[in-house]
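Good day; I would like, with your permission, to put a structural problem before you. What I wish to show you is a protein chain and, alongside it, a tokenised description of its three-dimensional fold. Thank you for your consideration; the sequence and its tokens are set out here:
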Amino acid sequence: MIARTKALFAGRDGAPLLQPYHDLAKLLRKGAVVSAATTWVFVAGPAALFICALLASLLVPLAPGPAPIAFAGDAVVFVYLLALGRFLLAAAALDTGSAFEGMGAAREVSFASLAEPGLFFGLLATAKLAGSLSLSAMLRFPLSSHWATAGAALALVAGSWFVLLLAENCRVPFDDPNTHLELTMIHEVMVLDHSGPALGLVLYASAIKLFVFASLIVRLILPAFPGAPYLHFLGLVAGLVLVAVLVGIVESSMARLGLARVPQLLVTACLLSGFGLLLLARG
């Protein structure tokens, strides 16, 4: 949907909706080229990244009931699973010994250190409303009833999470997933030496991560449909499509920020979530 939205703004037909799946299937059929200078870390990085993204997705409740994996404090585990996947991919990039990939890994972890507090503040704000640190309790239906009394705080959190969605998934204005200039890349430069199934796992893990962040935003603002699971499913799908369209609009109407300005926007996102938490604490 993001690609089709960008194509619409550019006046093109765009690729088919299922083109990413065709690309993944093509990569899985190919062989992999592995440098003799790398170790097992280079090979294990993409697989570990995919496993971390998959486990993180299982902690996010999509249906009216709890998530497939739910326990007290799973919100903290969710954040650290994403951080672990990022660390392992950065380690795989450093394992190549490439200066370019080392530069991308350094940028990735530097920006992530500024983005993670914003995600934590937003989770703490929803945890205060839900009275629990479990995502299944924090993003359940009763959360929608708090928009009448805590709408300003939730709106700040939603805005912060949308900015973090762009940053964590290396989208414009933080990064350009379609660029091929090593000096300006962040995430893409870390996977320059990956090919075949390893590159496919990286791309699929990135897609899961984008889906997870979009699901967090949708579940935060999705209204309650008690006793109507089909309406809930339709609302979830509509919300995910809307988030994808918004990302496509942002990427079509903005240019990539300079590296010096990226931390400023990330700090702004953290402040938005922080102010939302502060509003709830004062209330």
